[in-house]
Design a protein that fits this description.
The complex is a heterodimer of chains A (311) and B (456). Chain A has 2 domains: 192 residues, 3-Layer(aba) Sandwich (Rossmann fold); 81 residues, no CATH class. Helices cover 32% and strands 16% of the residues of chain A. Chain A contains 9 helices and 10 strands. In chain A, the strands form 2 sheets. In chain A, strands 3-2-1-4-6-5 form a 6-stranded mixed β-sheet, with helices on both faces. In chain A, strands 8-7-9-10 form a 4-stranded antiparallel β-sheet, with no helix packed on it. In chain A, strand 2, helix 3 and strand 3 form a beta-alpha-beta unit. The N and C termini of chain A lie far apart (45 Å). Chain B has 3 domains: 209 residues, 3-Layer(aba) Sandwich (Rossmann fold), CATH 3.40.50.300; 83 residues, Elongation Factor Tu (Ef-tu), domain 3, CATH 2.40.30; 103 residues, Elongation Factor Tu (Ef-tu), domain 3, CATH 2.40.30. Classes of the chains: A alpha/beta (311), B alpha+beta (456). At the A-B interface, helix 1, helix 2, helix 6 and helix 7 of A face helix 1, helix 3, helix 5, strand 2 and strand 3 of B. Chain A: Belongs to the PAPS reductase family. CysD subfamily. Chain A: It comes from Streptomyces kanamyceticus.
Chain lengths: 311, 456
């Protein structure tokens, strides 16, 4: 009973950090730990909001020096053109190095086969893991958040992957205090999730606070879409609509950005960050429940994909 | 779940959202104490369980023939957990109210996985220990209290659950609260709040209970929203472990040399005299860069970049401290450890010790005792520690380290022991002369049930 510090009431203390400041500081700490302990880290960059926030945090963590990591994009071949344009613009603006692992190249070479349902998300695993092995990346930053999905809720900030990039949830290292253990054998790597403790709302609030530029598909716009499996998909060369599916023009936006074949748009008139935040705060659906087909495949879809090396 | 609380809460304004602070807390309870129901209700009533998640739970519950949705399915994320119906691993949950954001470390109650409670408690400002009102304080409750004390979690909530099954009797609650408070205070838990609840019926979780008029305290959520998190930094030793040296070497910043790190404790000010460990060189703080903004003062847990007046040799693993408050460096560390690996930790074993941003070689010189949490007695010279054991160790490091007592600083008083062969995290260490409990361990306290009982 002798070590109790005097406590300052509630949130009035001048030393209390807002929750966004606390999350930001924690994420920056994680980036710097990786920079200090690994040889060849890389940031997975999809052009989606989570990876955009990751990059923004990395830029702040090392300023006024540049980000000491390169970027890696797993290109499914069915990406939104607006997102690819955004990706290339950001890479040029910050003088970054971009690696691309292309699902289309694997399909063209015959080493991956298109799935009957046309979904390319699960096909990303092989190009991703082979790229990691080939480039000898030893730390791979992902924008995964524990609030996204219940298998992700079990994920460590530093998550060891074996030489086959596999995740074994039963053999995870306990993670205590802020002492991250990044030790790994040659061939193994560590997936690092600096946004582990962020929620979708935190990400949007942070984007608003920091005035971070986003691809326009995150804001309401008119788009040609058609309905498949209860979701509004973008019509396009990737394989939709089929004969029995009808295209219509709707006012929509995206909550997540992934492969066009499995990422649905939501009806929305939110054209500003404030409107998006208000919409999410009131939404009764999770972002994945609303717009991701691949997570609905089975109760353990995410866990199974993560075991194989998916991010 | 009662119907009164299923309405969506009002969306918060942007100002409300950004003014909130963060509370990290952990839950602990034995199997079947109703922890999943409590967690489920906190998530549910704070709108953190959304329609599609609830539908998924309802669908799976129905397919298994259950009558009501099994809220444990919300939190058991792994295939093996659902198959066995138990929580194996700590999971992190997020929810928010208008007053606060919460990060909940949902830790398993199963005896085999108590090391995960250590994991959850290591970053927690508060721990909720659940007991079943019908059973009262049991062995596992004492272990949970001891772990919270050991990890120096500042606030402990005793949630006496299933009050509906004891007719909401005040005397039942009072007896349990008294027994627990006496035990936990003896362990050194600084603040204990006991709350009678029914997680199933919703009494005193979010809404005050009309069934327990005799209780005048806060509900669980109200307490979580208002419990003060200590921000009194004036009495803390200021510590900045150097993580990374930032040197742009560009035309714009040819001479910039900044020491990046997250302030582990206390405050740093521009103009302050500082000493760098282990070299002992001194300088003055020339500037503090708070992620791109120059500031005059910064404090824990801010991530900053420190600029010094003199160009001295500093690298990752060094510790910057105020010159008037320099910790003593030592190669002989006395600590309490919780063993977290499946392989044992033995006397004579060579390990790596990670303290803040520094990792050094070390050897386990002695394991003087192993703690029996049931009665807080010490089992002398156990020779080794196995998974979930808590024990005293003496470790000799290859290089001097500047450590604080864990009692003074959870961040600079903690360390990991790592297996150099395969990188496994072996043990979590807390620096200090003695376990939190001020009890005199009886010499004859070698519990008869020790061999069989020490398997949590």
């Amino acid at each position: 009973m002798t070590t109790v510090a005097t406590v300052t009431e509630g949130t009035d203390s001048p030393y209390a950090l807002s929750h966004l400041d606390a999350l930001e500081s924690e994420a920056v700490h994680i980036f710097r730990e990786v920079a200090g302990e690994f040889e060849r880290p890389v940031i997975l960059f999809s052009g989606g909001k989570d990876s955009i926030v990751m990059l923004h945090l990395a830029l702040k963590a090392f300023a006024p020096a540049g980000v000491p990591f390169s970027l890696l994009h797993v290109d499914t071949g069915h990406n939104f053109p607006e997102v690819i344009e955004y990706r290339d613009r950001v890479v040029a603006e910050h003088g970054l190095r971009l690696h691309v692992a292309s699902v289309q190249e694997y399909i063209d070479a015959g080493t991956l086969r298109e799935r009957p349902d046309g979904t390319r998300n699960p096909l990303q695993t092989v190009p991703l893991t082979e790229k990691i092995q080939r480039e000898k990346f030893d730390a791979v930053f992902g924008g995964g958040r524990r609030d996204e999905e219940k298998a992700r809720a079990k994920e460590r900030v530093f998550s060891l992957r074996d030489e086959f990039s596999q995740w074994d949830p039963r053999r995870q290292r306990p993670e205590l205090w802020q002492l991250y253990n990044g030790r790994h054998a040659p061939g193994e790597h560590v997936r690092v999730f600096p946004l582990s403790n962020w929620t979708e709302l935190d990400v949007w609030q942070y984007i608003a606070r920091e005035e971070i530029d986003l691809p326009q598909i995150y804001f309401a716009h008119e788009r040609d879409v058609f309905k498949r499996s209860g979701m509004w998909l973008t019509a396009g060369d990737w394989g939709g609509p089929k004969e029995d599916e009808e295209t219509e023009k709707r006012l929509v936006r995206y909550r997540t950005v992934g492969d066009m074949s499995c990422t649905g748009a939501v009806d929305s008139d939110a054209t500003t960050l404030d409107a998006v935040i208000a919409e999410i705060a009131a939404s009764r659906l999770t972002e994945r429940g609303a717009t991701r087909a691949d997570d609905k495949m089975s109760e353990a879809a995410m866990e199974d994909r993560k075991r194989e090396g998916y991010f | 779940m009662s119907n009164s609380t299923t309405e969506p809460v009002q969306p918060l304004s942007t100002e409300q959202l950004s003014a909130t602070t963060l509370l990290r807390f952990a839950t602990a309870g034995s199997v079947d104490d109703g922890k999943s129901t409590l967690v489920g209700r906190l998530l549910h009533d704070s709108k953190s369980v959304l329609t599609d998640q609830l539908e998924a739970v309802e669908r799976v519950s129905a397919s298994r023939g259950a009558e009501a949705p099994d809220l444990a399915l919300l939190t058991d994320g792994l295939r093996a957990e659902r198959e066995q119906g138990i929580t194996i691993d700590v999971a992190y949950r997020y929810f928010a109210t208008a007053r606060r954001r919460f990060i909940l470390a949902d830790t398993p109650g199963h005896v085999q996985y108590t090391r995960n409670m250590v994991t959850g408690a290591s970053t927690a400002d508060l721990a909720v220990v659940l007991v079943d009102a019908r059973n009262g304080v049991i062995e596992q409750t004492r272990r949970h209290a001891a772990v919270a004390a050991l990890l120096r979690v500042p606030h402990v909530v005793l949630a006496v659950n299933k009050m509906d099954l004891v007719s909401y009797e005040e005397s039942v609650f009072a007896r349990i609260a008294e027994e627990f408070t006496a035990y936990a205070s003896e362990l050194g838990v600084p603040e204990i709040t006991a709350i009678p609840i029914s997680a199933l019926a919703g009494d005193n979780v979010v809404e005050p209970s009309s069934n327990m008029d005799w209780y005048g305290g806060p509900t669980v959520l109200e307490h979580l929203e208002t419990v003060p998190v200590s921000h009194d930094l004036t009495s803390c030793h200021a510590r900045l472990p150097v993580q990374y040296v930032i040197r742009p070497q560009t035309a714009e910043h040819p001479d910039y040399r900044g020491y990046a790190g997250q302030i582990a404790a206390g405050t740093f000010r521009v103009g302050e005299s500082v000493t760098v460990l282990p070299s002992g060189r001194t300088s003055k703080v020339a500037g503090i860069d708070l992620l791109g903004t120059a500031v005059d003062v910064a404090w824990t847990p801010q991530s900053i970049t420190l600029l010094l007046e003199d160009d001295i040799d500093i690298s990752r693993g060094d510790l910057i401290v105020p010159s008037g408050d320099v910790p003593k460096a030592t190669q002989d560390i006395e600590a309490t450890v919780c063993h977290v690996a499946d392989t044992a930790l033995a006397v004579g074993q060579r390990v790596l010790l990670k303290h803040t941003t520094r990792t050094v070689k070390a050897i386990v010189k002695e394991i003087p005792s192993r703690l029996t949490l049931d009665d807080l007695s010490q089992h002398p010279e156990p020779g080794q520690l196995v998974a979930n054991d808590i024990g005293r160790v003496l470790v000799r490091t290859a290089e001097p380290l500047a450590l604080d007592a864990y009692a003074d600083s959870r961040r600079t008083g903690s360390f990991l022991l790592i297996d150099p062969a395969d990188g496994t995290t072996l043990a979590a260490g807390m620096v200090g002369a003695a376990f939190a409990a001020p009890t005199d361990a009886p010499a004859e306290a070698e519990a008869p049930a020790d061999e069989a009982g020490w398997d949590f």
